[in-house]
Structures are given as structure tokens and as C-alpha cells.
Sequence to fold (776 residues):
Amino acid sequence: MDLSFSKEELAFRDEVRAFFKDNVPAALRQKLMEGRHPTKQEMVDWWRVLNKKGWGAPHWPKQYGGTGWSTVQDYIFNEELQMAPAPAPLAFGVSMVGPVIYTFGNDEQKKRFLPRIANVDDWWCQGFSEPGSGSDLASLKTKAEKRGDNYIINGQKTWTTLAQHADWIFCLCRTDPTAKKQSGISFILVDMTSKGITVRPIQTIDGSSEVNEVFFDDVEVPLENLVGEENKGWDYAKFLLGNERTGIARVGVSKERIKRIKELAAKVEAGGKPVIEDQKFREKLAMVEIELKALELTQLRVVANEGKHGKGKPDPASSVLKIKGSEIQQATTELLMSVIGPFAAPYDVHGDDGSNEAMDWTAQIAPAYFNTRKVSIYGGSNEIQRNIITKAVLGL
Amino acid sequence: MDFDLSEEQRLLKDSVEGLLKTSYDFDARKKYQAEKGGWSKGVWSKLAEQGLLGLPFSEDDGGFGAGSIETMIVMEALGKALVVEPYLPTVVLGGGFLRHGGSAEQKAAHLPGLIDGSKTFAFAQLEKASRYDLGDISTTAKKTATGYVIDGEKFVVLNGESADTLVVTARTAGGQRDRNGIGVFLVPANAKGVAIKGYPTQDGLHAADISFTGVEVGADAAIGDPENALPLIERVVDDARAALCAEAVGAMDESLKSTVEYLKTRTQFGVPIGSFQVLQHRAADMFVALEQARSMAMFATMASDFDDAEARANAVAAAKVQVGQSLKFVGEQSIQLHGGVGMTMEYKIGHYFKRLTMIEATFGDSDFHLRRVSAAGGLI
Fold:
């Protein structure tokens, strides 16, 4: 047992860190540090820098353009990226639909989609949740009926993150209405420019419009856009969601935010001294740091375990990462709120593209706090994670 | 980065768990507690036979040259079985002082008996006013022509009733809370002027309040620098804190197992109570708390080998906070989920809860260590 990185791992960390230092655009970094939303172009430009370096989809297998890194290297890359800070590769493409395509798709689909995902030539979004199907995802109703060479899709998806930027959406659709819940669902790739698709933004409590409703009205999709076998989509969805869980702790994001809390708390005064010198505040902050250290080590244990059992086999203990990771992210935004106090109040205006650059960055603190409530809801709510622990770990 | 145990470490884990499985069930524990001094000489001999008492000592000193990970493995196993024998006071604390600060002569005089199981130790540190401050010492050690004369009172000395040798912190100079002028002394428990009042503790161990009245020891009784031993004390106590974290993880692990087992077997309203989601989620939260504590117990174990004393202290303090938070939740919820039976002395779960509770109050509770971590500027 040795909890420190090996010499090789440290050298790798230095390489990654140096690359980010030299290549993340200063304006983009600043925006992320201040909790603003970058524009689509800023993100795509950055991801293409990554892809040019060969790191567009780093955790994919080598033959599909990945790096062949170990799970520990994947971890280091993510951590450094989050601390830079810089946007991680677009999860919907690189972490979600990409692995489904190279694992279950045909050669034609691999050739057609994978390089474009890595270079973000196609922006992907996720068509899973529906108004009546949140945690009970398998109850979804969006239909895909076969007609000639096409599926005809009718229904509605919701909470579709950044659909306003998307070129493609991967959808779970019901292809066999007679089968029981989990059977009869298929995994279908849909061009967002297809006739009959309407995207309607949903404004969330922070004032931004990251998420959308997506309506499908007799949308024609070629049969060749089905991934894997018809009616097996639930299996692919479970595979996809399992892949999501280890990255979800977002330890680097919380570390970066704690650094910022300290900087800010050294500047803001209360009662004639900086907030950072207030004993109660210091102890609240220290408690979050301790929990974050514990989470980091728990994540490394899960990562090391996956390294042994092979990638793509999620450890049910990774639900711990989702629960604690989201709680800690929320706690960091609560600390920022307590630092800024009454100056959290001024409200900022958001641009149509979801960006917000108008006001002083202190105006981003309350929205970040409001927005971060989402992290214990998405990716399988924390209550669903407890169900997973109950069944898969405790055997209840 | 590697979280696996080596082949030898796995064998150690198997052998200590195997030994306790066959000789340390809950009923056996009650018998051991009823023996003189509150623990079993027979079990102690078995631990000695398996080499567990000699683990951390160098081969030159008759030990096995094992590191902090091996101590973690043993302490976790002792926590799982709720062992009452004095491993912490003897091997980790008494042995720790000899290992980190003892002279060749002191080691030669004391380690053979410690390792073969014939002698046990106790660490006499706590005073009426010191609470968790290791440098808050009123007991005095006045220098004489031939050595020192020790006067003062120590409280809640674990294994103080049975120990052959007491390791006593005492002031050679300065005021009650000065960082300098502190020494550590080896005092035979049967020395003239030593009065020992033993009693059982809440968690089923044994401790003693000990008074020292004009106790004369030789100059060779001082371990390390008698004027400046606080760094040594902090070093050894950090090892003990890491060991307690591991013991707590073992006790929490077993508490959760027992609770899950109970949820599966206890029936109410015609179904196992583990089918109720509110109880399932509570158990899931206990698992989260346990895994966070496990990670930090590993962190504390690694930290005991840090070269930088401040970094070590900060890491161990952070671990003690996390373990303290976790053990409170796991301990209390274990009782809650067991319901009435969890309240009974007859059933084992309450005894885990009591041991966990006492671990929290040993060598600094969560509040104490949280203040230390925050004073050090956190971890990031």
C-alpha cells in the first residue's frame, strides 16, 4: 500500500499541469474561476486545442483515438483540468455517447461519429429524462415507430443540458410498447437539424438556461442510427450511467473553489478583520477540506480498484463519490455565500447563449449556489445512489 | 499509487483475524474482562506467539521491522473483535516511546519483555487540567544528584492497573503550559511513592488514576531529552491517534455489518425491516461515513511516516476529525437501527458504540482536532 503517486505518475502530472498552464486561454480560465458560463465558441476552441494534443477523448481505447492511459492517469488528468480550471471534454459526447458507440455500435457508426466527437465537430446532448420519467427513467414514453427505412419519433425529452448548442442528441425511445418497462427501449442517434424537433429553453433558479425541453413531432430518423440491437437500449443506458459515476466526485473543482474561498475570505472584512480570521468560519471551511481529502482518497481507492478489474466495470462504492462529491460541491458554494454576505444580492443578466459577462463577478456567487443544488439531483439523485448502495453493497 | 496490501501484509491480516475469530467472540470477551486487571493473559500470550507484540520493532531489537501499515492492520482487527487487551498502551505507546526516543540500554532493558508478552506498559499523561493539550503538565520531575524525583497526579491511564512500567510525562522546568521543560520518564509501577487506583472504563477496558509522591528514578529513566521531549510525545501520540483511527474503522465496519444483518432478520409488519427505504438509506449513509473514515485512517497511517512534523500532525488531526464524525454517526445509528435490543448490555452492538465513543474522547476529540486543522490553514 502506498498512497502517494509514483515517480512516473508525478512526471505525468507535471506534464499535464504544464500543458494546461500554457494552453488554457486566460479569459476562459478567469470566467470559470468566477463561476461564469463560457460561450460555445470558447469551449469548442479549447476542446480542439486538447484534441490537437491527442487528449480530446483521453480515456477512450487507443484504437478509437484515446490515449491508453491507466485509471490513475485518467484521474490525474481530470483533477488537473478541474484545478486549472478548464472545461472538461464535453461529457455528453466523450464520456457518454462515445463509449456506447465504440462498445455497442457498428463499424460504420464508429467511423462516422467517433473522430467528430473527439474534435467536437458534433456537439452532443442527452435525451434520457422526460417530464414523467426522472428517477424512474425506464417509464419513458417517447416512441420510435418503424416506417420504411425510418423511425418516426414522437414525444418529449427534458433537462437536456446545452441542447441549444447541440448538433446531435442520443435518445432512449420506446420501440416495443408491448414489452415490460426496461425491455422495449432502444438507443437512437438523432440529428438535431431534423424536421419536427423544437428546443425550448428552461430557465433555472440561477437565471441561466443551461437546460432545455426537446420536443419530437413526427421526426424521421434513418434506421441506421439505431445503436446496437433494437430493444436493448436499457442495457446501453445502464452502461453509460455507470461510466459517469467515478468522474462525478469533481474533487478538482472543489479544491479550486476552496482556494478561491480562501482568497476571497482574506479580502472581505467583517467586524474589522478579514472573514478568514473568524474562528467559526475557519472551522466550517476546515471541515469541508477534511471531507474533501477523505473523498479524494476514497475516489483514488475506487480508481485503483477499477484499474485492477478493468475500465468500464463500475464499483458500486462509486455511489459514495456521487453523494459526498455533490454534498461537498454544495458546501463550497455555501461557504462562498457566507463570505460575501449581503453583497450576494445584486442580480446579473444572462445572454441568449447562456453566457453572463455583464457584472462584477461577486454577482456570480449566489447563482453558483443556486445552480449547484442540481448536483445532488442529476446523474442519479443522491437518493437513487443510496438505493444502489443498499442493493449492490449492503445486499438489503 | 497502490491501495493493495502486500502478500506479507495479507498474511498478517488473515492470521490476526483468524486468531480473533477462533478465540474472541462476544462471550469469550466477557470471560477475558472478568480476569484480573480486566484482560486475558492467555490471549496476550497468543498475540505474543504470533509475533504481534514485536511487529513494529527493528529486527536488531528482537522485533519484525514492520511499519505503520502493519499496525493499522492489527488495530483494525482488534477494533472488529472489540479486544480489551492492552495493545495500544503497550505496543503503540510504551513501545513507541522506546522505538522513537529510547536509548540502546533502555531498549535492551524493556523491549524483550514487551515483545515476549511478559511485561505491559501504560502511558501516564492526562492531568486534571490538561484535557487534550499534551504540553499542559503540572507533574514535576526535579533533578537530583542521581536522577529525578517525580511528584504529581495522572488520570485515566489505560492499563494503569496492570502495567509493569509507566511512561510518565513530567515537567523538568518552566510553567504548566510551557512547550519546553518537558520530559518523559520510565517508572516501574511498583516504585516507592506510586499509588495506583484502578477501575473499569465505560467501554469495558481498565484504567487507573495514579499519584506520584516523591518517586525517585535514576537519570537513565528519561527517554530522549528531559528538557525538550514534547516533539517526541507528539510523535508517539500521533501514532496512537492513527492506531485509534484504524481501531475505530474496525469497530465501525463490524457495527455496520451487524446492523445490516439485523435489518435482514428482524421482522415487523410481516416483513424484514430492511425492506423499509428509510432504514435502507440510513444504512447507506453509514456505509458512506465508514468509507470516508477508512480513507482517512489510511491517510493517518501514511502520515506517520512523513518527515515534516507539522504536515504529519495536520494529517493525523484531519483523520481524527473525520473518524470522529463518522464514528458518532455509525455508532448512534447502529443503536437506533437495532432498536430496543441495541440498548441492552447483553447484546454486542452497544459495546461497539461505547468503545467508539471513548475513542472519540481519547487524545483529542473532533472539536479539538478541527481547531488544530483550521489553525494550520486547512489541507489545501
Summary: The mean pLDDT of chain A is 91. Chain A touches chain B through 47 residues (CB under 8 Å).
